[in-house]
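Predict both folds.
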Amino acid sequence: MSRPSPESYERGRGMDAHNQVMREIRAEKDKHYDPHEPTRVWLDEDNTPDGVVDSLTIILNTGGCRWARAGGCTMCGYVAESVEGGSVTHEALLDQIDVCLEHEAENAAEPADLIKIYTSGSFLDEREVGAETRAAIAETFADRERIVVESLPDFVDREKLADFTDVGLSTDVAVGLETATDRVRHDCVNKYFDFADFEAACEEVAEADFDAEDVDAGVKAYLLLKPPFLSESEAVEDMISSVRRCAAVEGCHTVSMNPTNVQRYTMVDELFFRGGYRPPWLWSVARVLEATAGVDAIVVSDPVGHGSDRGPHNCGECDDRVQKAIKDFDRRQDPAVFEQVSCECEATWEYVLDEETSYGMPLTR
């Protein structure tokens, strides 16, 4: 089925001003990257439909997100880590995979069951990762149990997913939805697609799941807690609603809520520098997880940069304890873990929820 490109969404949708600002900010980037080296690789564990398993996370260094080259999302600085020139060769991408496998062999007792591959864009966009490379990566990890690949909804196609399911890999598509509220996604995140496009992508993955033999295919929705221009309370309310709406979509078995962290070469960074943005409180992460613990999906969160000024944080005294409770919730899905942590700063956070307004934020730093 033919679908419009991201560029076509920009025209006439009120995103031109956002994108112009974003292009100017991104032009400040002065660092360059080796196309034969991945952006990052690490070992961890993840909660999946198969239970908690060891994982190998790979961020491939590609030409970057197509939408980001037009301007892109207000909070995303990952495009600044992309290779210059807009494309990376098949051979270079496989060299990156080899580096990641060497890292795993040196640091893990045995190969991880779960492979997660991100590109700071869309793995299923063949301008970033060609069909030949996609098939080669599928063969490389055919001995694992499950793979997660990241993509915008436009590029989700059952035939592309068949490269993975046909070699015996259960396959999840991670979609950066950010929010189920279209206006917030358009005006605060500057992302062009609608919730209906996410639902259509879930339907496409469901078809891939139906066609697959002995393995499954599903969707992992990525949400963004507190994009710019929302107060703390608005952000919490939007997340609770978004988690519930995503969990109600057939095929979406996991919702991952990512609290915003301040990355360089972004609009959020510009706002933060001028005192116009504060990352979300860790108490807000806990509130959302508690409120959505009963939905029909795995709900997790991984607050990057917790406890720092540029990451989700509380007062500094309780940040590590709350972060530990969040990670415990990710594994056990039991909201009772949050009853074990408390701090005097909860009173300040509650005051912020009651009194902070979008036009006068942030109320606290």
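Second protein follows, with its predicted structure tokens after the sequence.
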Amino acid sequence: MAVTADRITREFSPNSPSTPNHREMVIDSTRKAEYWLAKQLDKAGITLNGSNPWDPQIHNRQVFHRVLSEGSIGIGESYMDGWWDCEQVDELMTRAMTAQLDETLTGRWTFIKHWLAARLMNRQSIKRAFQVGEQHYDAGNDLYTAMLDPTMAYSCGYWQEANSLHEAQQAKLNLVCQKLQLKQDDSVLEIGCGWGSFAELAATRYGAKITGLTISKEQKRLADERCNHLPVDILLQDYRHHDGLYDKLVSIGMFEHVGQKNYDTYMRSAHRLMKDEGIFVLHTIGKDKSDLGTDPWIDKYIFRNGAIPSLRQISAACEPYFVVEDVHNFGQDYDRTLMAWHDNFERAWPMLSTAYDNRFYRMWSYYLKCCAGSFRSRSLQLYQVVLRKRLTPMDRYKSPR
């Protein structure tokens, strides 16, 4: 039966008929927690055990305690444990975020803990930098090969004229090359090279010479294989340890791992590594407002030590070093990209299930759909920012679309 706040109020109001367990039921903590959650979800048009595809179906009523006490982590972990299901988790999250329920359901202590950690600690220090590579990007090349398109690009595709994931990823990579004004024999440093998608295309199609940095052993192994016999050098190295001077710089989907305490170091490093007449294209997820910390469940299970910047934070970090020549937001395209990845993941699961358990399946599906909902609600954006060195006279820059 669908559970709404109104129904619970009527059922347990002081004027309802007395029953032997009436008083105990009124003070029952599980029912109180259920009432509170139902009341919050009502604001977003979501009904516990309702008939809509975005309505959560509850299998274990202890989930209400977990949500109240643990917030985001309790919601995600209880889904991983099979305590609740939802046909369209992506739409559930879209509606919840549009109604700003994510701020209510975060879990106060969990949020404060992550906020304090972001403010007091450098969670993206050199010592901790490789943790996300070991946890997330080294999860298994079989997983990513099955989920991604043939380019192996693990970032937002550009769907303006694309009809498939592969077309969208090729369009994104070509768009970056065009914004870089890439030409034959340009030396390019890619900060966070993934599995070599940009390096392979830029070297093959544009004749550029690429140096790629990654903190993932599995990414390096596959990128080396993909870029064999091309003018591409893949290094297992933190950007803060790299030296050199390049015509162009690019960073696609890596700035989310830098962290607020390192934004200045990152921009100073990019400025040091690029020639005066160079161009830097920064492709990053962005938040719709500035704050510290990240979603606790995402931090624990998906992107360790991550931090999504706002446009204001990006601009402030650039200010001492670069002129912002162009900002291009196509965040809606990430919703479509994530759902395409989820479709690939679902199709590949019979093969992947021999190497990954059902809890991993639920975790990964939840991750992809939650992120899709975040972009669909416009809580998250996707920025491509074109940067050139300040106080360096150059011709007018015209950014392609």
